[in-house]
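Why do we bother with a discrete structure alphabet at all? Because it lets us treat a fold like text: something you can write down, compare, and reason about line by line. To make this less abstract, here is a complete entry for Bactericidal permeability-increasing protein. Read it the way you would read a sentence in a foreign language you are learning: slowly, and without expecting to understand everything at once.
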Amino acid sequence: KILSVLFVIEYFALSTTLTVPMPIDDLAEVDYSLNSLPAVFQPFIDLDLKGTVYAAGNYTGPPYVAAPFTIPDQSDSMLYLAFSEYFFQTSTFAYYTTGAFNITITEEVKSGKLLHFFFFSLQTCSYFNISTEIFSSIIPEVAKYSVTPYPVMLKLMATEIPVISLEQDSFTAEIQGSMEVFAVLPDSTTQSLFTMNIAANTSIALNIFDQKLMGSLCLNR
């Protein structure tokens, strides 16, 4: 028993100095190694894990500093998990550096197109089917380039690292990006129509419904 205890302590000490990555998907990995030895109390145990997300295979330290925090003293549940802003900051940084926020959408994109982000699968669209005719009615200049309706291709790109801020019952995401709209010509070449900059502020609230973690998204501005 003494040997097993010493081995566990040695393992914990070793894990605080090594990166212990676990794949999230093909783009990112999370380091869940211990920051310090677990604190054993009566009747619970505190585990302080790093929770740093890296681009897959790239363990360069992110440009953020983790701030310490504590979990409220409650005892009506068997397990408590807490995530800091640092976890979400390193997540957005990792996905931003891999280009995960750069998306090209064409009329062939259907419901099978998924964007994996923050352990959720976000469906980009059920079916994308718009043409230059729609934009011509909104932006008259488009009609000069496209008398005949052509399919449209959209290129979405994040121009800055998204900023995640934790609130009392939800978290907000500040997103800066751009969208370039192309007309797809009969010979499969593309003609750029216009580019617009996008700045969005959204709130995301998480709830457990029917034993599933559900998220509700609200566009603030």
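What the structure line is telling us, in plain words: The first strand starts at residue 21 and ends at 23. The chain has four helices and 13 strands.
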